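Subject — a protein and its fold

Tokens — whole-number codes for backbone shape
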Amino acid sequence: MKHSFLILFFLFIFAESIYSHHTGSSDSPNATARFVDPFTGKREKPTNYLVVTQDYYQSTRENSHLFTTTAFAEMNFYDGRFALNASVPWNYYQQRGREDAARIGKTYLGFKYQPFFDLDKPYFFVIEGSVGFPSGPDTDRFTGGNYYTGTGFIKLGYLYEKWSFVTKIGGLAPLSRPQPNNLQDNDGIPYYFRKLSASPPEPEYEFKKTTLISGYVTYYLMPEISLFTGLLYRNPYNGVDYSKVKDKLNPSYFTEASAGFSWNFSEKYNMSLAYRYPLQRDREYRLYQSAWTFAFSMEWGSD
């Protein structure tokens, strides 16, 4: 946790020294409204910005607590119609009965496209996609799955007076098959060079295409401060990785509610805090008791 807050502090100082000019923006309230996803802390529309997100998952299924710090950067082109982005997560596992551990998560490269673009309109429509890269066979340093993952979403948003409504529909799909790894020693030998006697047992996991649907409502108390609440639906319950042993008794889908606030404390800087609450509460299959998502973002641009 200390490392995460130090990162946020230095990013803030760094941004102040480099981006001392104002971010260009329209005078329209429709253009200046920031749509922030409460489940990820990311902006919905193509934007030049960097966001650092800190997720805290309390009482996870297999670990006491999970801290995930994610750096996400996005750059837009063609006056905000199109954007390219990248994200890298870092996970810290505070574990029960054994030593804590840290892993680098799956890296994603993605894009956003806004085909119907008009800053003065009270709505937006965005197409979004990304590719997640294999984490590699070394599970002592990396996590997230040694396979390619593709994501695709469409997002619709509407701003009415002090209210905004956003929905997001899409999913994730594995783009490659799992490669067998000898997870006992992580010696780095490719699976196709291993002797048959060194082959691992049949994997306990299989891949599933995953559907994700989310929506949230935001109320703007004032131009700088807003409150939001949202719901998320995911099917299957655990996402892409399906355990043939552990997930048999799980519900068929996962749902989560969230609530929080967002604060634009300058023209360039924004922070948001969301509380997330899984609606499946049975201790036998609950993924985590609750979660907090804190996001700090900074924009850049030209006047």
Remarks:
- The radius of gyration is 20 Å.
